[in-house]
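Revision sheet: structure tokens.
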Amino acid sequence: MVEEGLLEVECSSGARARFGSGAVLTFAAVQPWRLLNPGATPLVLSALTR
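Predicted:
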């Protein structure tokens, strides 16, 4: 979950998507290449694993 800031997810294909505060993500079907903070404010994430 994106708690604060802006998260940009880049896949190995080069495709990118941006997610703002409050976004809930799962990477079960996608393996991100990079996680980036494109914004000027700090990015705060909460993560859970099984």
